TrEMBL record:
Keyword Membrane listed: yes
Protein's UniProt keywords contain Membrane: yes
GO MF terms held by the record: monooxygenase activity
SUPFAM superfamilies: Dimeric alpha+beta barrel
Keywords: Membrane, Monooxygenase, Oxidoreductase, Transmembrane, Transmembrane helix
Domain ABM: 9-81
Source species taxonomy: Bacteria, Bacillati, Actinomycetota, Actinomycetes, Micrococcales
Protein name: Antibiotic biosynthesis monooxygenase
Length: 189
């Protein structure tokens, strides 16, 4: 009997940090990442906080299998590292993710110390419209001839198959950068 295949595991930890300890916490988290990188199967880590004044930090790390994760979590290095941070951070929630909820975690290191607030939804809507409308018009005319006898669902399927990658990887990032001065205006002062 063969052993079942192992899947990547993402560990999500919510930690509380006092504002006066943020710089120390960041150095502590970086030290943990440096150690974890030396363990086989390490895929990446990151941390974010919901807003600039939040005491809550969300930390992630990812290993290629439960076995690799277990070696890291049971290591002497990690135990000592956690001990060194005991006065800086308090873990309030720990989750191990192996299913679909872990698919969208980036397997790279991401550090966001000061998050930029998202623009208002109505501005986001305008930017998306400015990318979606011309794409829809062009595809409607470009695909009209080749799909003339197709059922409606087939034309929509082909349009989506072309539009979604185009919008995701090329046009929407371009339009977002183009509109950035409007969506994220610099504050005077």
């Amino acid at each position: 009997m063969s052993t079942p295949p192992s899947h990547p595991v993402t560990v999500a930890i919510t930690r509380q940090v006092d504002p006066q300890d943020e710089i120390l916490m960041q150095a502590w988290a970086d030290a943990g990442t440096t150690m974890a990188q030396r363990f086989p199967g390490f895929l990446g880590s990151g941390w974010v906080r919901p807003s600039a004044g939040s005491h809550e930090w969300h930390m992630l790390y990812r290993f290629d299998s439960a076995e690799s994760l277990s070696r890291w979590e049971g290591s002497r290095e990690r135990t000592q590292w956690l001990g060194a941070g005991a006065r800086l951070v308090r873990a309030t929630r720990v989750e191990h993710r192996t299913g679909i909820e872990g698919w969208f975690d980036e397997p790279t290191e991401i550090e966001v110390a000061d998050t930029v607030a998202a623009p208002p939804r109505w501005k986001q809507m305008v930017v998306i419209f400015c990318a979606f409308f011309p794409t829809s018009v062009v595809l409607t005319y470009a695909l009209a001839g080749p799909t003339a006898g197709w059922p409606g669902w087939g034309r929509v399927l082909l349009t989506c198959a072309v539009a979604i990658p185009w919008m995701t990887y090329v046009f929407l990032p371009f339009v977002t950068r183009l509109f950035s001065p409007w969506t994220h205006p610099r504050r005077a002062g």
